[in-house]
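Consider the record:
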Amino acid sequence: MRPLVPLFIIALVALLILVEALKEDTPTPPGRRAFFNRFVLPASTISLLTILGGFLTIQEANAEKAREQLEKAQQAFDAKRTGQLTQLRIGFDPIGNQSGGALDPSTLNDGLSSLLGMRVTSAYVGTTYTDTVKALGEGNIEVAWLSPLSYLYAYQKYGANVILRRLTPEGQKTYQSYVITKKHSGIRTLHDLKGLRFAFVNPLSTSGNLIPRYELTKAGLDPDNDVKGFYAGTQVAVIEQVLNGDAPAGAVSSDNYNAYLEALGNKGSDLTILFKSPVNIPEGPIALRKDIQLYDTLRVEDALLTIGEENPTILHTVNITGFTKATYHTYQELLHIVDYLNIDLSTYNG
């Protein structure tokens, strides 16, 4: 602001001349008025130029400050490049866990390894959603391939950082929860489930637990008492339980149901969808440990987006068609359902 002081003094003098020259109701000797009148135009010009100069000076000062802040941010960003990852371990939720998972992520890992210039592996972290979250929180993996509900749990417990969400095999950003049964089971509505065995997937499954509980509650049923609920463990296990008659009905994701139905062929024709939840569930998130630095976070994000654009067939091996940006707010609607059901995520143990 110091360079503006002389300008302000000049402007003040010019304004005083203008005021004196424009006085009409104050007795002023004609000679003095004629003297001041000669300065009206110059004083007006000086005032306008001073105001404009002051404005431009302030703008330049703000621009300079912004440039300094940007430079500092760039320096801080560059400084963090020294802490790059040397390996990337990905932990999958039960559908992709090795060994025995329904998906084989080895092709994806090889593609990411080429893009990142580091070793990328799939870490076997256990058989449950909680195992995957725990591995992320305890530093045994850098990236977790989660369900929406298990991400919210990971965020609240370990500060997990979501960067992307997956796209369905049809390229959609959301999916649904299905309640399935056999065609000749005699079950026609959710109310018909009262007193029957019901297969949930896992406590931290969104489509296989959270949403069906929500829909049963809205239908007037207590999911803990009015149905004989149990956890089958995986989406595939729910479908098989219903198919072989061990459970009259169960809940699965639309993604898994459609994929498994295609794999079953004619055998799957015995199944039917009893209920489709109207809730559009945001596709599963890709989350990083909270201590992963910004530079590395951006590298991983860019590699995942790039691999989907350059070689979509790689993503087909893990039953998706790509990735899209996601933040914590992407999944906030699910938190409203969590609150509606009075669920304490911290006590959940999938």
About this structure: The chain has twelve helices and 13 strands.
